[in-house]
Amino acid sequence: MKVERIYKVFDEYRGLSDSKLRPTELKSEQFLKAFRELLDKKNNWPFLLPLRLALEACTHCGTCAEACPLYIGSGRNKLYSPVYRTDMLRKIYKRYFTLTGKIFRSLIGAKEITEQDANAMAEAAYRCTICRRCVLACPFGLDNGLVMREIRKIFAELRIIPEELKEEGVDNQLRYGSAPKISYEALMNILDFVKGEIEENRKNVNIKIPVDKVGAKYLIINNAGDYLSFLDTIRGIIEVMNYVNVDWTFNSPRTGVFDNVNYGLFYSDKDMLQVIRAHLETINKLKPEYVVIGECGHAYDVLGHLMKDLIPPEERPFKVIHIVELYEKFLREGKLKLDKHKNSEPVTFHDSCKIGRCGGIYDEPRRVIAASCRDFREMYPNREYNYCCGGGGGFALMSKYNFLDFRMKTYGKLKMQQIKDTAASTLITICANCKRQFLDMVSYYNLNINVSGLSEVLANALVY
Ligand code: SF4
Ligand code: SF4
Question: Which of 62, 109, 121, 295 has its Cβ near the most Cβ atoms within 10 Å?
Answer without folding.
Answer: 295
